Amino acid sequence: MDKIEHGIVGALVSLGLYGVYKYLRKESSTVAGTLGSLALGGFGVLPDLLEPATSPSHRGFFHSAALLSMLAYGNKKA
Question: In the chain, count of helices (H) and strands (E)?
């Protein structure tokens, strides 16, 4: 995936998770929550900016499950 794809996929996944979260809590989504989810998910481009590709199989810390877990935890706390 390139930077643009990472951003789009991240934004859509974040939006989907927000929708599921609100559905499970039987709450209505808000414009601020929707836009915030899209914006936070759009930060999926950060791994490519912080750790540019050097080969097709580049995968370091910024592309790791550990970082994803930390970001998910931080998002939950926010």
Answer: 4, 0
